[in-house]
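FORM 7B: Structural annotation worksheet

SECTION A. Query
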Amino acid sequence: MSSRTRAGIEVLCEERGSRVAGVRVGVLCHAASVDGRLRHAVDLLSAAGAQVEREFAPEHGVMAGLQDMEVVAETRDPLTGLPVISLYGDDEASLTPPRTAFDGLDAVVIDLMDVGARYYTFAATAIRLLEVAARVGVRVIVADRPNPLDGLTVEGNRVDPRYHSFVSELDVPNRHGMTLGELCMWARRQRDIDVELEVVPVQGWRREQYWDETGLPWVLPSPNMPTLDTALVYPGACLVEATNLSEGRGTTRPFELIGAPFLDALRLARSLDERKLPGVAFRPVSFVPAFHKHAGRLCGGVQLHVTDRRTFRPLRTGLEVLAACRRLGGDAFGWRREPYEFVSDRPAIDLLAGGPGWRESLEEGADPRELAAAWQVEQAAFLESRRPMLLYTD
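SECTION B. Predicted structure
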């Protein structure tokens, strides 16, 4: 497959090969770490003369086959034969690589497919790796990739420091409009991380472009991120993880399908349609998850159909869905009470929201329009502050 857009890993290995030739490297990667011809980062680096010593595995593993919050126990990549260092184990400490993981390395190459939402954990993994690399004196090269949701649209609030967690590692809006390389640069400045960092930009990507406008192949970065359609709704639909509603895991349309056994599909769809949200339509559905929440039970709910992605606002939509489900579900609706991403002392919804405000407001019956309006000042300040970190300007 050919493409005018070239992923950073292809640019690094074919145009800046001297940066890695003869260098002992570790690679933070997964199944989606491929170029326009589906060549994997490890193979490209090896062909460029790098001595690839080991791989680092983010959540879901180097093969991207493990479910959410499932321990990555891989010790060797079955395709490359390389040893694997898990960065998603069974406790909070496992999310940060040990200093010994860098032994014998000159550099670490990061090539991860991010999906443009603050909660998607790959950016957090990359940033925690940066911090340890700084302490042990190993340089980091980020082979950048496009933001699948475009690099212009920003939506959401900032993070209350008291609610910092693995799903709110950076104080950026929920939909931040930045690439992974830009986020790493942002983190280095915000946290004063003294690391030698090189970001290899994507060639041919413009900030207004969505993934399907790049010509690059979509490879699942995680089991429940099968398509760009999924990524489009994810910044809002991910909030459903923090409830007892099904977010469609265990179906062929995760995050596009939302429901529960106690919901009336037609009433929910009509209630949401009355809100006249831009760029989205709600179709009443019934579905039976094969696994995860409500497995084997018939759920009533809606499917989110994005009709105009330029005007669609996933986060506002996600809050509207929560408000409607809470109102129509009555006492049957509930917030997640189980630990979430190794945190048990704060509700999952507060971790995703970056603070307790959304939950408290929804419990008081607040209009989601008011919550969205309150983001405007924070969004404007963020857009200004991120400007020096932007690698792609039109």
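SECTION C. Observations
The chain has a mean pLDDT of 96. The CA atoms of residues 59 and 88 lie 5 Å apart.

SECTION D. Sign-off
Analyst initials: ____
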